[in-house]
Amino acid sequence: MLWTPSKGRYRVDHNVGNVGNLLLGTAVTTGAAATTKGTPAELITATAFDAYWVKIVASGYGASTVASAGSMDIMIGAAGVEDILIPDLLMGYCGGINQDNVGPKTWDFPLYIPAGTRISAQAAGERVSTALRVAIFLYGGNGYPTHPCGSKVTTYGMGTVPAGTAITPGASGAEGSWTQITAATTQDGLAMVPSWQWQADTGILATRSLFLDLGVGAATEEEVAGNFVFYHSSVELVAGPVNGMPAFGSVPSGTRLSARISNAGTNDSGSNAVIHVVS
Fold it and tell me: What pLDDT was estimated at residue 99?
């Protein structure tokens, strides 16, 4: 049976303009030190409607032969008193929409953001004082969500900015071992979204895909909760995941989370990841 919402179409709000452009979204500049977030940049002055789905696109930070790990916060609130809504998206090595062999990094979150909200972003990375582009798309406006929806995001596994938890991928198509991201979540969650990047790598070996599994449960008893595909190139660019749908499912407070990675070829150094949980 086809079920349709009873109050109009979904609307979309964004910061990408209305005509084609080589640069997607708003420039966000990293801080003067790799561990320091730069000045927040406004993405949207005031949201046009109540939104229930958020898509973030990060592009243009990766560069050939340059270490480009990074992390980025999405923030809400007035300038100077922003609250962090989505902490530490690992945007490192993200490609650009105008680059031939790899695209941007993307994240999708089932999040409620009320109408009239100001949205901004701040970032830190190995390429200091360097701008990336951040685009945001908000979906909603039909009166209520048609899916499970949260109001905040907690990021697990973040180490010293801009690095997440180190994970050794299985090489040449082998499945890597599970790596614990957190021993116990701190609150109930309804969906999970991963971030992944290389770090301190100035010579990514070849263009290939990489599969990241999210695990829930005790060590040796992990249940695969989601599978995500990233891809990377030999000119130090990373994109994905190509399957952007969050891993929906109950994540009770106190849940152990883990991740494992399978790389299509020889491993590079410094693979790291975090898990973002929507509550």
Answer: 58
Which DSSP string corresponds to 30-90?
A: B-SSTTS----EEEESS-SS-EEEEEEEEES---TTS---EEEEEEESSTTS-EEEEEEE-
> Which residues are 131's β-sheet partners?
29
Are 189 and 124 within one domain? no
Q: Which of 23 and 229 is assigned the larger pLDDT?
A: 229
| Structure-derived torsion over alpha carbons of residues 33, 35, 36, 40, reported in degrees to the nearest 10 | 120
Residue 144 confidence (pLDDT) above 80: no
Residues 234 and 119 in one domain: no
pTM: 0.95
246-261 confidence digits (pLDDT tens): 999 999 999 999 999 9
Q: Tokens 């693979």 correspond to what residue?
A: 271
Please check whether residues 24 and 80 belong to one and the same domain: yes
